[in-house]
Amino acid sequence: MNHKIDETNLEILRILQEDSSVSHKQIAGKINKSITTVSSRIKWLIENQYISSCRAMLNRKKLNLDINGCLYLKLAHSNEDTICNIRKFLTDKKGISQCHGITGSFNLKMEIVTKNVDEFTKLVNSVVVLSTVKEYYSYMYTDELIAYRGFSI
Fold first, then answer.
1. pTM of the predicted model, to two decimals?
2. In CATH, what number is assigned to the domain containing residue 33?
């Protein structure tokens, strides 16, 4: 099947981004296409990595994960080996929900979600003692003004 990212594919992506549990039949009804068309389009979108995964967005407060914040790291060296070693170290750290390489004064930004301030502090302290960390700043969010909404496509 040779699809392009056309308006039908974008409509499917918008619907799935809003609620990935919606059935192919429901999508077909919303966009006025057959279930077979929707199924083949979704299969193509997955195979071509336009859809990287389908996950549930959890309510962190219901799970008693009260602290949400970030940690910025400035590294002494930001070469490929250093980044690879940090990635390996961070992969198993419970509480780090995301980590991104960034531009500007710092090299990395981590999103951290923990049950309490003590867990947040312990996690931050376990990372910032790495020999490659030159400087760091950590913040705890006070309000969520706009929740994650996906991409504007």
1. 0.81
2. 1.10.10
